[in-house]
Amino acid sequence: MAKAFDFGVERLAGTGVAAEAGTHEHSQDGCATGRTFFLETFGCQMNEHDSEKVAGVLLARGYRQVEKPEAASVVLYNTCSIREKAAQKVFSRLGEYRTTKKDGQIIGVLGCVAQQEGEEIFARAPWVSLVCGSASYRKLPQMIAQLEAGNTRVTGLDTDTDETFETEMTRRDNPWRAYLTIIEGCDKACSYCVVPFTRGPERSRASGSILREVKELADLGYTEVQLLGQTVNSYADPTPTSSGRQMRFSELLVAVAEVAGIRRVRFTTSHPRDFGKDIVEAIEAVPGICNHVHLPVQSGSTAVLRAMQRTYTRDEYLEKMEMIRAAKRTISVTTDIIVGFPGETEDDFRDTLRLMEEVRYDGAFTFKYSPRPNTPSLKMADAIPEEEKSRRLAILMEKQREIQAGLMRHAWGRGTNCWLAGNREEKTSGAGIRRITKL
Ligand code: SAM
Ligand code: SF4
Question: 296 CB under 6 A from ligand 1?
Answer without folding.
Answer: yes
